[in-house]
Amino acid sequence: MTTLKTLKIKTGTCKRVLKELHSYEKEVDREAAKTANMKEKGADPYDLKQQENVLAESRMMLPDCRKRLEAALIDLQGMLSWSSQVRKAMRFVKPKL
């Protein structure tokens, strides 16, 4: 049966991964602005290339983070669905006294 502790863990996982996703989105925005600024100022090609690599790595984290969030949400929804099905089934069982 679904325990409160398990629900808290799964909810916490969803919150943590969502927070991580927002963090990566902010990082991508910040690194894109830094790259654009470096291009405008005519920075050294090597430094610019390194900055573009940093931006590419940040962008690569977004799809992975979205997949993990989707998996965590599906897991939580499945647990909630299972829990509600058990509660419905328990209504039809008469306790023996």
Tell me what you see in this structure.
With 97 residues, the chain is mostly helical. The chain is built from two helices and no strands. It has helices spanning 4-41, 45-91. Helix 1 runs antiparallel to helix 2 (45-91). The protein is rod-shaped, with a radius of gyration of 23 Å. 0% of the residues are buried. The mean pLDDT is 87.
Structural class given helices, strands, pairing?
Answer: mainly alpha
Contiguous runs where pLDDT drops below 50 for at least 5 residues: none
How many DSSP helices?
A: 2
Number of strands: 0
Distance between the termini: 22 Å
Globally, the shape reads rod-shaped
Strand fraction equals under 5%
Q: Report the major sheet.
A: none
- Average per-residue pLDDT, rounded, comes to 87
> Could you give the order of the helices and strands?
HH
**Radius of gyration based on Cα positions:** 23 Å
Classify the helix fraction into a percent range. Answer: over 70%
What is shown here, in short?
This protein is mainly alpha-helical and 97 residues long. 88% of the residues lie in helices and 0% in strands.
From the structure above, extract its key features.
single chain, 97 residues, mainly alpha, 2 helices
List the helices and strands and how they pair.
Elements: H1 4-41, H2 45-91
